[in-house]
């Protein structure tokens, strides 16, 4: 038999190589369940952040020795920032584990740990009761929270991205940050109501515990929802290719093998989280502590801004599916570069209208990031290392630049006396984020790297 009779023509071989894998047809009901379960975990994480940020002055009185109020606030934000130091460790543990055993199992574990850490804070005795043991226990609880959240955002965004149809990934991913805003509004709103209804003594003696204790029931609900989920189609396909005997991907390969994508991830997360924590975590304390703004009115303004952001979130997410992630993120970077100073000057003017306009401008610019990042970040990495690499890049950036924002900006204002430091800090972050956007590849409407195309089922809404 001649060789020509058994060797396929070169043109046929090229055709076979170019043939795309069969698309994954998503089940709309499963997609909705996945989005709800992932968003609830993010909501619980940010419920805690909202409570902690809005009640920071009270926590300083409860857990740290009396004295300089600024020193108490710095100590409170220091404990807040400490949790971010262990986030990369959590990412290095939970991320690779999620690539090896599955996303769903790891997300169930992170839910349990987050709820336990937050619930524990509500049980810690005050400094007046047990002395130095109080801030130590607070720090331990924050470290548990930080370790668990090291696997939360990357896992939740990966979970939604791998379930979502390619053409609706931006819209569906935006609901993850909708959960963030809902949780933050829930936590901050509860503190606002308590501040209005309770006396300062009651809030300091027992009232501050209530928001943290609510995390227990929330965690049980979230765990129930996550345990009912199935594994993502992308991960299931990856496991099937290896005949359920997937080799471990070394942690080193998740870093060195993805170094370019990791650098882009760090840059994107930097601008996302510096602006996020500046607006949602630091500004309430800035309004009351630095500008001596009426506490209740300041809290209500920030809550109103977040409510408007929630409404805009899914619409901007859908916009990223039509025009792309890059143009929307680039708009946010340009906006923060050009408008941070004018917005902060409005806020410093002090009237309710001026503060609302300044905060509203920053909030709408932030939506450019909150609506885009849950779909843009998972698309930087292939399926086999997506959870692990994204966890490492995301948490390193958040730890160094995001969670430290309140502490760094408070210290900079104290050292320089310059009340415009928040604006300059956001502008610097916007420059770095803009460079990352320039270097990233557009992912809207395209399959995730290493995954088959994904299309919506017939009954998708």
Overview of the molecule:
By secondary structure, this protein is mainly alpha-helical. The protein is 77% helix and 1% strand. It contains 23 helices and 2 strands. Strands 1-2 form a two-stranded parallel ribbon. The model is unreliable at 1-18 (pLDDT under 50).
Please outline what is shown here:
With 461 residues, the protein is an all-alpha fold. 77% of the residues lie in helices and 1% in strands. It has a two-stranded parallel ribbon with strand order 1-2.
Entry keywords:
about 450 residues, about 75% helix, mainly alpha, disordered N terminus, 2 strands
Give the N-terminus to C-terminus distance in angstroms.
Answer: 57 Å
Structural class: mainly alpha
H/E element order: HEHHHHHHHHHHHHHHHHHHHHHHE
- Mean pLDDT across all amino acids: 83
Low-confidence stretches: 1-18
Strand content: under 5%
Number of strands: 2
Fraction of residues in helix? over 70%
Cα-based radius of gyration, to the nearest Å = 23 Å
Specify the overall morphology: globular
What's the arrangement of strands in the largest beta sheet? 1-2
State the helix count. Answer: 23
- Quick one: biggest sheet? 2 strands, parallel
């Amino acid at each position: 038999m001649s060789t020509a009779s058994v060797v396929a023509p070169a043109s046929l071989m090229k055709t076979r190589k170019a043939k795309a894998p069969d698309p994954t047809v998503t089940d709309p009901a499963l997609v909705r369940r996945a989005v709800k379960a992932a968003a609830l975990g993010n909501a619980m994480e940010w419920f805690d952040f909202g409570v902690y940020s809005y009640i920071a002055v009270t926590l300083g009185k409860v857990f740290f020795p009396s004295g300089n109020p600024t020193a108490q606030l710095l100590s409170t934000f220091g404990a807040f920032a400490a949790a971010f130091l262990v986030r990369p460790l959590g990412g290095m543990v939970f991320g690779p584990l999620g690539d090896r055993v599955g996303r769903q199992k790891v997300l169930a574990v992170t839910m349990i740990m987050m709820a336990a850490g937050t619930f524990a804070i509500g049980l810690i005795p005050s400094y007046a009761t047990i002395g130095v043991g109080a801030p130590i226990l607070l720090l331990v609880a924050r470290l548990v929270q930080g370790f668990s959240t090291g696997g939360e955002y990357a896992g939740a965004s990966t979970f939604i991205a791998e379930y979502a149809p390619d053409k609706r990934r931006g819209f569906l991913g935006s609901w993850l940050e909708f959960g963030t805003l809902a949780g933050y509004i829930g936590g901050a709103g509860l503190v606002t109501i308590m501040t209005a209804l309770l006396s300062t003594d009651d809030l300091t003696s027992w009232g501050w515990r209530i928001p943290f204790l609510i995390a227990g029931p929330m965690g049980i609900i979230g765990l129930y929802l996550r345990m009912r989920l199935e594994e993502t189609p992308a991960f299931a396909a990856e496991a099937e290719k290896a005949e359920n005997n997937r080799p471990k991907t070394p942690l080193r390969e998740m870093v060195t093998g993805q170094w370019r994508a990791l650098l882009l991830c760090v840059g994107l997360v930097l601008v996302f989280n510096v602006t996020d924590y500046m607006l949602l975590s630091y500004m309430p304390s800035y309004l009351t502590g630095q500008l001596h703004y009426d506490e209740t009115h300041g809290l209500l303004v920030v809550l109103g801004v977040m409510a408007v952001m929630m409404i805009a979130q899914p619409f901007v997410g859908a916009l990223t599916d039509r025009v792309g992630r890059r143009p929307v993120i680039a708009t946010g970077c340009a906006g923060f570069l050009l408008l941070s100073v004018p917005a902060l000057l409005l806020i410093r003017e002090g009237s309710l209208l001026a503060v609302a306009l300044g905060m509203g401008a920053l909030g709408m610019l932030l939506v450019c990031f909150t609506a885009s990042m849950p779909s843009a970040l998972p698309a930087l990495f292939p399926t086999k290392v997506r959870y692990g690499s994204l966890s490492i890049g995301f948490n390193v950036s958040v730890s160094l630049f995001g969670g430290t924002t309140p502490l760094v900006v408070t210290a900079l204002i104290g050292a320089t006396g310059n009340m415009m430091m928040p604006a300059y800090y956001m502008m610097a972050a916007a420059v770095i984020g803009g460079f990352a956007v320039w270097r990233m590849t557009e992912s809207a409407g395209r399959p995730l790297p290493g995954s088959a195309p994904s299309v919506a089922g017939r009954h998708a809404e």
